[in-house]
Specification:
By secondary structure, the chain is α/β, with parallel strands linked by helices. The protein contains 12 helices and 9 strands. α5 runs parallel beside α6, α5 crosses α10 and α8 packs across α11. The longest helix has 20 residues.
């Protein structure tokens, strides 16, 4: 049995406040240990996941790090000029800071709205948040409360429009709360990188996302849940388009070199081949020829 961990549960549910009942927490932790103990191999999508499992006394030789992949042919770098979304939302002469993805407990996008209010005097800077309708309704109330008229809320777009939608951005945002450290790595980060966008990551500096951003050179890490810490690097990069282009280049090259579909599939194929060979050499095991 190969156990694939896209998130570390129940850590994620506990840290974001979804799971509070002490009895349920104890039950799920028992189930977690049971799953780790009975898995032949555990594949994880981030190196911080490895450290998380090792701290729980999971055998190191059971764990293998296989990152999620992104289709770098489907998600590609497109020009901002004549971009449909910039034209449709009258953003041709704007500096667009884009957040696209889930609006959930792990993000805390209310802080993004408050950061936007600090930049209201810079009339060319606009924040665009793309998400599901229910989450946008909550953020709309937050925008009204903070008079954040430089925030544009846009519903999710069809998948075939993804590259075009991401191309409207000058900067892409990744946002996490300060307690999201070693149990989560959103797959959208690889997608943002593949779109050749510089990333502002408002995330814990010791978390999985910060480690990836720093390693790849794909962006700048800012302190989470701090509106000034997020607003300042946006303002700095707004004044330095050459720096944005250089970071964007690094951002694209990293998934091209490390997160292709072929690399991911080859890693899983190698893992399964290794496990099949272990089965074949066990005493009394049935060989391929006998099958």
């Amino acid at each position: 049995m190969v156990l694939n961990l896209q998130d570390i549960l129940p850590d994620a549910a506990i840290q974001v406040g979804l799971l509070k009942n002490s009895l349920l927490i104890k039950l799920f932790k028992i189930l977690e240990k049971f799953a780790y103990r009975n898995a032949t191999k555990i594949s994880v999508i981030a190196d911080r996941f490895v450290e998380n499992l090792e701290a729980k006394c999971v055998e190191y030789n059971k764990i293998i790090h296989i990152p999620n992949w992104v289709d770098t042919n489907f998600v590609c770098a497109l020009p901002k000029k004549d971009n449909y979304f910039r034209q449709n939302y009258n953003l041709q002469n704007k500096f667009v800071v884009l957040y696209s993805g889930n609006i959930a407990l792990t993000q805390g996008l209310e802080r993004v709205v408050k950061s936007a209010t600090q930049l209201r005097n810079f009339i060319y800077i606009i924040f665009v948040i793309v998400g599901h309708e229910e989450g946008l309704q909550q953020l709309q109330r937050e925008c009204q409360k903070n008079r954040a008229d430089n925030v544009l809320l846009v519903p999710f777009q069809p998948r075939e429009c993804l590259s075009e939608m991401l191309a409207m951005a000058d900067l892409s945002l990744v946002v996490q709360k300060k307690n999201v450290v070693a149990f989560n790595l959103a797959s959208k980060i690889q997608v943002l990188m593949a779109s050749e966008k510089a990333i502002i990551a408002s995330v814990p500096k010791n978390g999985t996302v910060a480690r990836l951003i720093n390693k790849s050179g794909a962006g700048i890490v800012a302190a989470p849940e701090n509106r000034t810490a997020l607003a300042q690097p946006i303002l700095n990069l707004h004044k330095n388009p050459t720096t944005i282009n250089n970071i964007g280049y690094n951002s694209r090259q990293y998934p091209v070199n490390n997160y292709t579909v072929e690399q991911g599939l080859n890693s899983y194929e190698s893992l399964f081949d290794q496990l099949l060979r272990q089965i074949e050499i066990r005493p009394g095991a049935v060989s391929n020829q006998e099958v």
